[in-house]
Design goal:
The protein is mainly alpha-helical. It has six helices and no strands. The chain has one domain. Helix 1 packs across helix 4, helix 3 crosses helix 5 and helix 4 runs antiparallel to helix 5. The longest helix has 17 residues. 30% of the residues are buried.
Length: 128
Amino acid sequence: MIGQWDPSATTTSNQPETKTLLLLAQHSAEPTKVDDETLQRAILWIKSPATQWEKAFADISDDALLQLSFFYVRAEMKLSGFEAGASSPAIYVFRYLKSQGRKPSKDIVKALKAETDNRFIPHGDVLS
């Protein structure tokens, strides 16, 4: 007998997942070392609205969130498909931390900006 295909078994979530975001944060220094399946999910999530990101951020420490922002900034510079412009997850991290009263230091902002040519990092489009 031939097995039945279950489409739900092969689809990936369109919403950022805390567990995977933590994995990405652990690879912030070298995004190219993340496996292809996880990278594809990370690319897919770039299109997710800020509200979905905020749900996933709630259970992640500030340090891990900052590492996650470095992951996305470095991935945007090194890997195809991560081009995000004003929709970068790094921007969502900074907005989330600011909204929680935990704004990152100027040294962290400076370090993040030094890693990218994305003019929207870290605060996003001022016109939106």
